[in-house]
Request: fold
Amino acid sequence: MIKPFRTVSAVFVLGVALISLSACATKPAAQREPVPELSFTNISPYHVDALRVDVENLYQPGADPKDVSTSFPVQPDIAIKRYAENRLQPGGQRGGLKFIIEDARIYQREILPDNKVASWMGAGKQDQYEIFLRLKLYYTDDVGVQEGRQGTLNFNRTLTMPSSVSLTERELRQLKFLEQLMKDVDAAVSQALAERFSMRDGDALPLASLLSTPEIR
Reply:
């Protein structure tokens, strides 16, 4: 009598296990929240005193093994190129303005907490991203590059966040970081065009929100 009872019990346990596995298999996977995008299609144009505006991206992310810019939702060099193509518009009768992206590296490093116990347990770790951006602008006419109407803009910014944040939260913070960087770039480009190139556009509005969703809460 004992053996049949064990057999029935084993079958019952196996049946419960199969039902549990089936329930786990059919449970819908968690939906990943959509991440906003940087949009430059509706920004106010900045008309420069040139017949042409040429935007060129010379940066090659694969050239630097430490560069992690391709892990961002939008690569900085691509975002800068989109910005320049939409923001800077020809409004003159001659010459050309060249906008060149020379560097857009991002380095990442892990910051460990000062507390040794927390560090040993893996708590309190942070990820820091540092961007190195270099842009070059110059004006050319039939003779060539005009002396005094050229300039290089350098930007160095850092973003720090807990290593434990979710992927969606990480990408949102990276996008907000890029959005603020783009506003800094626009302010510097506008100032350079006005002061070094004598190309001031009083109708151009400062960049507002570039993200397609509300602010991160």
In short: Residues 36-195 form a domain with the Double Stranded RNA Binding Domain fold (CATH 3.30.160). The radius of gyration is 27 Å. Residues 129 and 159 are 5 Å apart (CA to CA). The longest helix spans residues 167-195.
